[in-house]
Amino acid sequence: MKIALFNWRDLHHPKAGGAEVATHRLASGLAARGHDVTWITSAYPGARSGEPRDGYHVVRAGSEVTCRFHGLKWLFDRRNEIDVVIDEVNTLPFLSRLVCPRRVVVWMHQLAREVWRAEAPGIVGAIGYALEPALMAIYARTPIVTISQSSAASFREFGLHGPIHVAEISLEPPSSVAGAPQAGLVGYVGRLAPSKRVDHIIRALAVVRRDLPFAELAIVGSGSDRETARLTALARDLEVETAVRFYGRVSSEKRDQITRTFDVVAMASLREGWGLVVSEAARYGVPGVVYPVPGLIDAVADGKTGIIADAQTPQALAEGLLRIIKDRTFRDALGAQAMQYLLQFDDERFVGRFEKILRDR
User: Fold this and answer.
1) How far is CA 91 from the centre of its chain?
2) Do residues 23 and 152 both lie within one domain?
3) pTM score, two decimals?
4) pLDDT tens per residue, the chain (361 residues)?
5) How far is 330 from 48, CA to CA, in rounded Å?
6) Does 206 lie in the same domain as 84?
């Protein structure tokens, strides 16, 4: 098949995250199966307008917003050549159905909903929150692929009544980097953004340290200067600044080295498509403590591979962290089961299932 894949960022975009890692695995996996895949995305300083990448081709034009207009023009010019379009929705859809109404499959990790208000406060967030239902109504009967059962359920509740398929993402095998878990080291990997609620993790650390003064927090990832400053100030106000280390954005090898030292990984997002960070940490036997929100509840099997907090509060998060840090036998058992749990998520299950959906649409 000749496949056009639309995503606002590519794997090497400065703001690329878990969604782009999953998209890369899909694009390269489909290309390896003989399909002609083009990834249409936004440009960024220093990026080429087009280049080959691991079997597929990348086309870049416009900003993270205007790339949608460039993408629609690109698709319109080739509308008779493309067999299927994968319209990946990250906050805003590409509206490719307006050009190829019968050849579109939507790939959506999660609804934006609360993210609009967290990431774009004020009038912009309110407009985005209000517009999402209208924009997604265009795809009400379009086949949708998502990466978790909880996201699929939320789409149904949102009023999307077309076929909804689940294709859980695959993961790269663990690298051979050295490292050993540090008792009491809580880890977070990801963007520093309001919707990720890293401030909740810092507050949870403050609670944990009342009982375990040696506990620390490693934060791997970058964000806006404003958000970084806000989190730094919070750590100072809670008197845990010496126990919180901000690594910033690092290479994948460095990230894996740091992850190996985590005693436990924490996530407090408003919602996720899956919670890729939790699964990536599990490759090294690191259990997770997460909030009970869509996506994260799929990434953790409660009491088996980690803990799903009882509530979306720093106190509840801290209780889960304390339970794992204090009980080494429990911690190691969770880590071992987390590694075993991941074996089922391979490329055949992910790319193979996605390929079948594209063929059968």
Assistant:
1) 13
2) yes
3) 0.78
4) 999 999 999 999 988 887 898 899 999 999 999 999 999 999 999 999 999 999 999 999 999 989 999 999 999 999 999 999 999 988 778 889 889 988 999 998 866 656 655 565 666 555 555 666 666 777 778 899 988 888 888 777 777 778 899 988 877 777 777 678 999 999 999 989 898 999 999 999 999 999 999 999 999 999 889 999 999 999 999 999 999 999 999 998 899 999 999 999 999 998 888 888 999 999 999 999 999 998 899 899 999 999 999 999 999 999 999 999 999 999 999 999 998 888 777 777 899 999 999 998 8
5) 49
6) no
| Structure tokens that stand for 303 in this block | 């009491």
Question: Domain holding 217: CATH number?
Answer: 3.40.50.2000
**Are 351 and 234 contained in the same domain?**
no
Domain membership of residue 53 as a residue range: 2-170+345-360
Q: What residue type is 201 in one-letter code?
A: I
Whether 322 is in a domain gets the answer yes
Contact criterion met (CB below 8 Å) for 270 and 115: yes
Residues 336, 349 within the same domain: no
Of residues 95, 186, 194, 114, the one with CA closest to residue 154: 114
* CA separation for the pair 196, 275 (Å, rounded): 11
